[in-house]
Structure formats: C-alpha cells, structure tokens
Amino acid sequence: MTSSFSHEHSPRAQVDIDLDAIRHNLTLLGARAPGSQVMAVVKADAYGHGALPVARAAVEAGASWLGTCSLGEALALREAGITTRLFSWLDAPEADFAPGIEAGVDLGVSSTGELSRIAAATPAGTRARVHLKIDTGLSRNGCPPAEWAGLVEAAAAEPRIDVVAVWSHLACADEPGHPSIDLQAKRFADAYDVARAAGLDPMRHLANSAALLTRPDLHFDLVRPGIAMYGLNPVPQDEDLRPAMTFRSAVALVKRIEAGESVSYGHTWTASRDTTLALVPAGYADGVPRSLSGRMDVFLGGRRRQVAGRVCMDQLVVDCGDDEPAVGDEVVLFGAGTRGEPTAREWADKLGTIDYEIVTSMYRPRVRRRYLGERS
After folding, report:
1. Binding site feature residues for substrate
2. Which residues does the Swiss-Prot or TrEMBL record annotate as the active site (predicted)?
3. Lowest-confidence pick of 10-14, 24-28, 71-75, 197-201
4. Distance CA 210, CA 169 (A)
C-alpha cells in the first residue's frame, strides 16, 4: 500500500471539495432549465462545502443569483467581493436589514410586519428589493394564504419597496408524483395572480433541485438548485451528478492482535482470527457519527474494510485482516463512490437521515478543507 496523505501540518482528517464537480453539476442543472435563471443555493456554508469558493465556482458555471438563508451569510459574500445578485430569506426579528439593503441584497418577506421592518430600515432615496413568499403548503416560512392579499397590497403601496419576485417552497418535490406538488403549484399560481392584479410584475421562483429535475413546468423565471449542485441527487433518477466532497484521513498506527482480543469501548467487537488493525485519527468530534459504530466501512488500500468496534471521539479502528497498511496510508471515509468507497448517501441511509445532514456537518475545527479545481 502506498501513502497518499502527506500534506502540510499533518491534519487529523481532511475534506476535499472538487470545485470542478460543482461547476459540472451546475452546468448540467442549468441545461435542464434553459429558459430560467439559476440561483445557486450556498446557505449553511454551501451545505458544508465552503460558501465563498463554491459561490465563485457557481458564478463561473453560469449562476446569475446566489441564495443564502441569513443576511449575515449574504453580507460575508459581498464583503469578499461577490457582486452577483444575492438573495437572503430568513433572519431573526431583531435583524438589522439596513446593511443588506445598502449592499443590494434581495430580501425574502413573509409578513406585513417583516415588510414594515424592511421599509423602515431602507435608507432615504433607495428601495429595498424584496421577494414575497406565499406559504403554499409547507406550513413553514411564508405568508398564510388568508393574509396574502394584505401583504401584496402593502408591498405594492410602499414606495420604499421594490417587489422583485413571488416565491414559495415545495414540501415533497423529492417524491415525484406526490399529490401535494400539484396542489402547491395551483396555490402558487393563484398567489401570483393576486400579485399581478395588484399591479405588480414580479418574477416567479418555486423549483428546488428535485423540481428542477422532475417538473419543468415549475421552472418559471428562476430555479434554485441546492443539494444537486453538490452532486447529491434528491430524486431516484440517473443523472450525471458528481459528488463534490470527499472525507479522508490516514493510518496513524498499525498493530497485530490475536483471535479473541476485543476492540474499543465496551468491547462490542472481538476478533474471530488473528488480524491487523489500523488506527485512524478521526472520530465523532471530526464528523464520524458514533451511531455508525458496528455498521460502517472505510476505503483503505484499494478496498472497503470494516470499522472494528465503537467510533470514539478522536479515533476509529479498521480491521485489515492479513493485509498490513503503512502508517500514512490514505483512508477514505466517504467520497464519490467511483472506486467503491462509501458515500455520504450510504452514511445517511444507515443513519435514517438524508445526505444533506452528512455534508453540512463536515465543517469542524479539526478537519481541514482542501479545494481542488480552484481558478485564479
């Protein structure tokens, strides 16, 4: 086995982000919605991939908008030199909207109270760009239908407000054919008609990654790819999406144990034969869920190998049988799956969650990020 994990500062673990994969994915997704603008969603530090490098790659791939959840996320991109149109849609009630308005950040609005706070924060001589959100059935953020006409009328009458768009979010787009999709689409159309009747001429945006891939009738003026941009497919469809994140570490210690010896806390795993163990300095403090103990593999020395015993805070142990890895050999915890290594989706399936949660949890102080495919 050959060592391939010799980088400066000897990180315990490393996440590699393939920016070329992100560019590829976004180009593919944009081609699926040729009549729509593309908003690359980079909220939550770009789903754990790093907001600024991903934002730059997304713009290079043709995104004309970037989507963030919080105003702070949007302003950090502005301060880093991103000039692309930015959209931010959810902040605490005490948020100061003035810096965002001054920086040209579009703001999501779900209530007349929020609209009033934004209007009050708008500097004289300027207009805040807002996207009015209608709750079409997710029952989360968004204006209830019974209050929609009032919000639209207030926005249309406010001279400090420029209504750029009407938008909403689908609850079950990742379940193609779910009856809620058509119901939400109908409610969205009705809400848009109300806005038009009030004299507004807004854009429309509704499609997330799943709807972008499965419902071209819902692409409208703008699509909002999120998880698919990172190469993780939200629908059971054969798309040429490339996972952008690889989580890796390296062998720190190799030892031989005899049959009958047990490994890690609680002695939940006992060797059935003499075997070689490889110690990997990555544990649940580094993003390896302890709940994967006893049911996870890693990719080491050209093949998948079982993790022996419980995942600890700082380390895990790999059963290598009669193979003897070298200290420093690469260990892939999850990646694209092209070599047979585990994937983020595999982790998610075993944990009963979604791959969104796996990748967004990978921003940790002890795990170094490395970017592949950066352009000057």
Report:
1. 140, 313
2. 43 (proton acceptor), 265 (proton acceptor)
3. 10-14
4. 11
User: Is 265 among the catalytic positions?
Assistant: yes
Using only C-alpha atoms, what is the Rg of the chain? 24
**DSSP code, position 362:** T
Q: What is the CATH number of domain 244-372?
A: 2.40.37.10
Q: Which of 43, 133, 192, 356 is catalytic?
A: 43
In angstroms, what CA-CA distances link 288 with 70, 149, 293, 294, 360?
27, 48, 9, 13, 13
In angstroms, the Cα distances linking 154 to 158, 164, 290 are 6, 14, 51
pLDDT exceeds cutoff 70 at 376 = no
- Lowest-confidence region among 11-15, 45-49, 166-170, 335-339: 11-15
Q: What pLDDT does residue 185 have?
A: 98
User: CB under 8 Å to 301, separation ≥6 — which residues?
Assistant: 1, 320, 323, 325, 329
Closest CA to 340 of 288, 371, 305, 289: 305
Residues of the chain with CATH 3.20.20.10: 33-224
Contact between residue 251 and residue 325 where contact means Cβ atoms under 8 Å apart: yes
Binding site, residues? 140, 313
Tell me which of 133, 186, 192, 265 is the catalytic residue. Answer: 265
Tens digit of each residue's pLDDT (9 = 90 or more) over 23-52: 999 999 999 999 999 999 999 999 999 999
Q: What is the pTM of this model?
A: 0.94
CATH of domain 33-224: 3.20.20.10
CA proximity to 67, closest of 186, 193, 181, 165: 165
H helices within the chain, ranges in order?
19-32, 43-47, 51-60, 71-79, 98-102, 112-121, 145-157, 179-197, 209-214, 344-351, 355-360
Which residue ranges does the chain devote to CATH 2.40.37.10?
Answer: 244-372
Active-site residue flag, 255: no
